[in-house]
Amino acid sequence: MDTLAINGGKKAVPDKLIKVWPPIGALDRKLVLASLNGHEHSFGPNCRAFEKEFAAWNGNQFAINTNSGTAALHMSLAACGLSAGDHVLVTAYSWSSSATCILHHNCIPVFVDIDFATINIDVRKIEAAITSKTRAIIVVHLHGLAVNMDQVLRIARKHKLLVIEDACQAHGALYKNKKVGTFGDCAAFSFNQNKCLCSGEGGMFVTDNPDMFQKAKQLWSFGETRAPGQARDYHAYALGWMYRSSDLVAAFGRAQLARLDYYFKTQRENAALLLAELKGTPGLILPVEPAGHTHNWYNFTSRIDLSAAGWNGQPERFRDAVMKALQAEGVPANVWQSFILPAMTVFRARNAYGGGCPWTCHQTRPVEYDPAKFPVAQRHCATHFGMTTPLRAPNGRAAVNTIARGFKKVFAQLDRLDVEKILSLKKS
I want to staple 245 with a disulfide (CB 3.0 to 4.6 A). Which of 65, 154, 255, 270 is the partner? Predict the structure, then answer.
């Protein structure tokens, strides 16, 4: 085996072989330039067209173009009619917005541990987390893999809970051949820079419920009841934010949406090739795609089998050393989320709004945030690393093969990694 690049050998992935995301083409330039040359630069015609096109693509009745996926998540809480002090179940491992959106609406997050294989919420542990104040579940289709929605919906019906889908990373992901964002009462998507559908920043709220659509739209635009483009009375009828997108951003999003099916196909082909190349690699735990699930491969997330690697020390230190060795080979691997949600200060301190609010609200019930009660999420967090963009178009077989070579090279020489020396190296 060749000498590791971190030890002075030649890197496996040549510089500039992996192309940046997203690819920009003629349609992007055409639509964005037309918007720039137009005269509606706030919530304009591209925003309205983007809503219709995305709803048609995903299979929803209604869509609202927002300035972020986080905004769309907050709108989902409002659309569901949740009130101060209500409890909302959510996975213990996700991006912070999956839970802070609950705080935005003065509700209380209640965490549920994850299933190690899928990294999604462990549906077997949902019922045990339900309290007398629980009103809704936020199911996060993490890294582009759908949650088992049959189980979630069964529990929701049994306990009369509303279901919000956090599909911010899951554009095009399927559960039993049905797209995410079409199972729950409403859903949120993100169009951030690294998402599978990128408009720079932005998001989309979707639902099939006309009442929820109106409630979300009210929060989205200053608490008004009439949308931009309609005759507005500029009266705030309820507490509202300004979550609208802009015409330039929507023009970019529309152009990218036109190629999303091609992107999805490319990601799946590249992920399948990489999985085949890396199958059986000692010490490497590969991501899974259970029967009935169709992954979009937003993030190709792997874990390290510490026992197989013969490491008995702090898991994060060995993971970080392995990741630095991969990076030295040119593999764009990174830690996606360094903390489980119950360990984050915003939840541990219980002081989001000052004075202990919203946890001190007389409408609620006490909730405990002990990170030790979420051991599976912690195990995953300490041993994972992922890649968000190298499996995406226009990258193909050449990029995948060199990435696989980098993985194999490092994992074949785990016993040659000087962890302390590697971690002491300055970042390049």
Answer: 65
Q: Which of 272, 265, 264 is nearest to 400 (CA)?
A: 272
Among all chains, which residue has been given the structure tokens 């967090």?
381
- Structural domain harbouring 294: 5-22+261-337+379-424
Q: Are residues 114 and 165 in the same domain?
A: yes
- Whether the bond between 375 and the residue before it is cis, its omega within 30 degrees of 0, is no
Q: What is the pLDDT of residue 183?
A: 98
DSSP state of 265: H
| Rounded distance between C-alpha atoms, residue 272 and residue 131, angstroms | 41
Contacts of 238 (CB under 8 A, 6+ apart): 218, 219, 223
Q: Are 208 and 61 in contact (CB under 8 A)?
A: yes
Same domain for 266 and 292, yes or no, is yes
Mapped onto helix, strand or coil, the DSSP state of residue 155 is: helix
Look at residue 88 and give its three-state secondary structure. strand
Q: Report how many domains make up the chain.
A: 2
Question: Does the predicted TM-score (pTM) go above 0.90?
Answer: yes
Q: Do residues 318 and 390 lie in contact, with contact meaning Cβ atoms separated by under 8 Å?
A: no
Proportion of the chain above pLDDT 70, given as a percent: 98
Amino acid sitting at position 149: M
Q: Do 5 and 329 form a contact (C-beta atoms < 8 A)?
A: yes
Tell me, what CATH number does 392's domain have? 3.90.1150.10
Instruction: List pLDDT tens digits, range 242-269.
Output: 999 999 999 999 999 999 999 999 999 9
Measured CA to CA, the distance from residue 315 to residue 312 in angstroms comes to 8
pLDDT digits (tens, 9 = 90+) for 365-405: 999 999 999 999 999 999 999 999 999 999 999 999 999 99
Instruction: Identify the band that residue 164 occupies on the pLDDT scale cut at 50, 70 and 90.
Output: very high
| Confidence class for position 428, pLDDT limits 50, 70, 90 | very low
Question: Can you tell me which residue has the tokens 């060995």?
Answer: 318
Q: Which of 259, 274, 309 is the last residue of a domain?
A: 259
Would you report the helix, strand and coil content of the chain in percent, each value rounded to 5?
A: 40, 15, 45
Burial of 366 (0-12, 13-18, 19+ CB in 10 A): exposed
Write down the residue that tokens 């995305």 correspond to.
54
| Same-domain status, 307 and 178 | no
Per-residue CA distances from 200 to 161, 348, 361, 425 (Å)? 34, 32, 37, 33
Residue-averaged pLDDT of the chain = 95
What local confidence, expressed as pLDDT, does residue 236 receive?
82
Residue 161 counted as domain residue: yes
Q: What pLDDT score does 222 carry?
A: 86
